[in-house]
Automatic annotation (TrEMBL):
Protein name: Salicylyl-CoA 5-hydroxylase
CDD domains, per the entry: OYE_YqiM_FMN
Domain FAD-binding: 2-324
InterPro entries documented for this protein: Aldolase_TIM (IPR013785), FAD-bd (IPR002938), FAD/NAD-bd_sf (IPR036188), OxRdtase_FMN_N (IPR001155), YqjM-like (IPR044152)
Molecular functions (GO terms): FAD binding; FMN binding; NADP binding; NADPH dehydrogenase activity
Family annotation (Gene3D superfamilies): 3.30.9.20, Aldolase class I, FAD/NAD(P)-binding domain
Record organism: Streptomyces antibioticus
Annotated ranges, domain NADH:flavin oxidoreductase/NADH oxidase N-terminal: 388-721
């Protein structure tokens, strides 16, 4: 096999070495347009997991790396003159130039043809002359560009500028330092990579970079000395007054690279050519080296090149996608660093450490229990109490813990009446320990239902049925609160039950649809009528009447549903509100009717009981509600008396493109909490008690709403308490259940092990 490797970075070199080691008959050529010692950046960080893979695949390279590594455990976070240190993190780093030298030596010893200062032939020629072309030519990959129609790359620029520098001394920890300057917030990321050297990255938002004048004069020079000197002065305390140095350094903007495909014919992408992940989680070289390991293994294991490249992508894509999600969360946290500056320094440090969601409360407790316990004390956790089991107060309601059973439509009512199913469903979850149990969206009129199976609060009989449920919760599950979510389906109504065809129109028995504007939810779907002024008045009264009934039957909290494309949400989004009257146009006008409804409901809802509002913080569609809009929407509702904002996203338009992932909606809640200064409920793929503790303690949310986990386990909160060894009042087992508060015994696994070996 003849193999062409385009790009002499760590990923390309390691792939060449592995491929040659596994099969010495392979003819492998590496093209690198720069000199051997020409490299971008200074230090490289590798994880123990990556090093384990290197050790197994090539002990020679591993041993050479092991001798060079600088190892450390601590992370220092310096915020407003206060330094907090967290230990137990375990890093290993070495100089990038030395890493390349080790790989050069290994390639040469194996017989790889290294061609420096040489441009690779055109990709079309390489694909004809070689059996395999490995494109390891970086974020600006020419190979990828030549086959862009096949790879379909998407390059997303971000909002910060950064510059890669170095210092001639070793930090004694991985250091994050924040500088609040007259131009805005700047941050330093620094770590040692040799006994006498450290990498230093200075980063700031684009507008701060421009305001500070870094965009003037020297940004295109190979040695931007003025920028380097200014950065050294800004972070003089961190550097001890020492200078910084550059190495082909220039201010740049990070770009996230995603490719629809990683291989085309006999060409395969590797490292930054295939994907990038922000440097704040130290992942670029790590991912490239792991790509090389996987590619070499798949070429050995699979019977054909086609199968090998397919297996390589299948193996690596999920890992990379997970890393990119974590990197995106970290990147956005630093982009929005200003939101968190008001936090106490220790809690700020915890927030920074858990920003990517890969380091969590429980994980950090294992690494550094002393630091984590100090953050908990600062937050107000009593001894032995996890953050999720601290109380939270809204008006006259004190929730015993921070867990909310999220509103989930059950589609199991008859004529709007909740029945035995709803009693068991909601009652079981109240018995299961949650602080607040929310109903599904309860509709304010027959025409406001989503499906024939949706519940309502528009008749006295429905009110009586709900009273049965609230009485049960308050009697059988003392300490649990129950809330009602009021809404109207708008243009998304008159559809089949979810399991019969979600959002599909009923075959018969339809009712008329109304909405802000006459736009169907799905192409070919039913078109609603635009609401007249008189109908708006009627709807407002329907909401108020339902709220009055909700108060009479004993609900502890009321949530107004202004999300997911239902009627009130339809007024808020510019994609669904095309009105030209006083209720359409600017955001202030689009807010008018939802606020009128809120005021009408607040007017009949008891003053001592809290009200929340659920919103879609983004439509996940071009031209729709933006994160900036969401902050203004939250501010408006808070000004009218909302006690918290329940922050969801999407489901407003059928052609949305959401960015799913663990806790993927939490950044929107985080921003609203800090910018609008209103408590928030985070929701969306929060599935573990560790996530709940992490989000609460970091200050990204006040409450966490979980849906599917409570479908899987009605006793989710009680089990979370048991697994954490918590036995306090915030998660008290009902008396009839106390015998089950410990996990059942299982079969024994402690049989005696063989101890004596017969003599030979």
């Amino acid at each position: 096999m003849r193999v062409a490797v385009v790009g002499g970075g760590p990923g390309g070199l390691y792939a060449a070495a592995l491929l040659k080691r596994l099969d010495p008959t392979r003819e492998i050529t590496v093209w690198e347009r720069n000199a051997p010692d020409h490299t971008f950046g200074f230090g490289v960080v590798l994880s123990d997991e990556t090093l384990g893979g290197i050790e197994h695949a090539d002990p020679v390279v591993y041993e050479a790396l092991r001798r060079e590594f600088v190892r450390w455990d601590d992370i220092d976070i310096v915020h407003r003159g206060v330094r907090h240190t967290s230990g137990g993190h375990g890093f290993a780093a070495l100089g990038r130039r030395r890493l390349l030298e080790i790989l050069h030596e290994r390639c040469r010893s194996l017989g790889v043809d290294l061609r420096f200062r040489t441009e690779a032939p055109h990709p079309a020629r390489l694909t004809q002359e070689y059996d395999l072309v490995v494109a390891a030519d970086g974020v600006h990959s020419a190979t990828r560009a030549a086959h862009a129609d096949a790879f379909r790359p998407v390059l997303t620029p971000h909002r910060c500028r950064y510059i890669w520098l170095a210092a001639d001394f070793a930090f004694d920890a991985f250091r994050f330092e924040i500088a609040e300057t007259e131009h805005g917030v700047m941050q330093l990321h620094g770590y040692p990579y040799a006994a006498d050297a450290s990498t230093v990255i200075v980063e700031m938002r684009e507008e701060v970079w421009r305001a500070a004048g870094f965009d003037a004069g020297d940004e295109s020079e190979s040695d931007p000395r003025e920028s380097v000197e200014r950065c050294a002065k800004i972070f003089a305390d961190a550097l001890g007054g020492r200078p910084l140095k550059s190495n082909n350094s220039a201010w740049t903007t990070f770009r996230t690279v995603v490719n629809e495909r990683w291989s085309h014919g006999n060409v395969v992408l590797l490292g930054d050519a295939a994907h990038t992940a922000h440097f704040s989680i130290g992942s670029g070289t790590k991912l490239a080296v792991e790509d090389a390991l996987a590619l070499a293994a798949c070429l050995t294991e699979q019977p054909s090149l086609e199968r090998a490249l397919s297996a390589y992508e299948e193996e690596r894509r999920p890992v990379v996608a997970s890393t990119q999600r974590a990197a995106r969360a970290s990147l956005e946290w630093f982009e929005n660093l200003g939101l968190h500056l008001h936090q106490p320094p220790r809690r700020f440090a915890f927030n920074l450490l858990t920003r990517s969601r890969r380091v969590t409360h429980d994980n950090l407790r294992l690494r550094d229990a002393h630091f984590t316990e100090a953050v908990e004390r600062e937050f107000g956790c009593p001894p032995g109490t996890p953050p999720m089991f601290t109380p939270f107060r809204m008006r006259g309601l004190t929730l015993r813990n921070r867990v909310v059973v999220s509103p989930m439509d059950m589609y199991s009512a008859t004529d709007g009446l909740p029945g035995d199913f709803h009693l068991v469903h909601l009652g079981a979850r109240a018995l299961g320990g949650a602080g607040l149990v929310m109903t599904e969206m309860v509709c304010v009129s027959p025409e406001g239902r989503i499906t024939p199976g949706c519940t309502g609060l528009y008749t006295a009989g429905q009110a009586d049925a709900w009273r049965r449920i609230t009485d049960f919760v308050h009697t059988a599950a003392p300490g649990a609160a129950i809330g009602v979510q009021l809404g109207h389906s708008g243009r998304k109504g008159s559809t089949k039950l979810m399991w019969e065809g979600m959002d599909e129109p009923l075959p018969d028995g339809n009712w008329p649809l109304v909405a802000a504007s006459p736009l169907p939810y799905k192409p070919g779907g039913r078109t609603p009528r635009e609401l007249s002024r008189a109908q708006l008045t009627d709807l407002r009264e329907q909401f108020a009447a339902a709220a009055w009934r909700a108060a009479r039957v004993g609900f502890d909290l009321l949530e107004l549903h202004c999300a997911h494309g239902y009627l009130l949400s339809g007024f808020l989004s510019p994609l669904t509100n095309r009105r030209t009257d006083a209720y359409g146009g600017s955001l202030a006008k689009r807010l008018r009717f939802p606020l009128e409804v809120f005021d009408a409901v607040r007017g009949v809802w008891p003053a001592e009981r809290p009200m929340t509002v659920r919103i879609s913080a983004t439509d996940w569609a071009e031209g729709g509600t933006s994160a900036d809009d969401a902050v203004e929407i939250a501010r408006a509702f808070a000004a009218h008396g909302a006690d918290a904002i329940d922050v969801s996203t999407g489901q407003v338009v059928a052609d949305e493109t959401p960015e799913f992932g663990r806790s993927y909606q939490t950044p929107f809640a985080d921003r609203i909490r800090h910018e609008a200064r209103v408590p928030v409920i985070a929701v969306g793929a929060i599935s573990s008690w560790d996530d709940v503790n992490s989000l609460i303690l970091a200050g990204r949310t006040d409450l966490c709403a979980l849906g599917r986990p409570h479908l899987y386990d009605p006793n989710w909160t009680l089990h979370a308490a048991a697994e954490q060894g918590y036995t306090g009042a915030a998660a008290e087992w009902p008396a009839p259940y106390r015998a089950g508060s410990r996990p059942p015994r299982t079969g024994r696994t402690d049989a005696p092990k063989p101890r004596l070996t017969p003599l030979s």
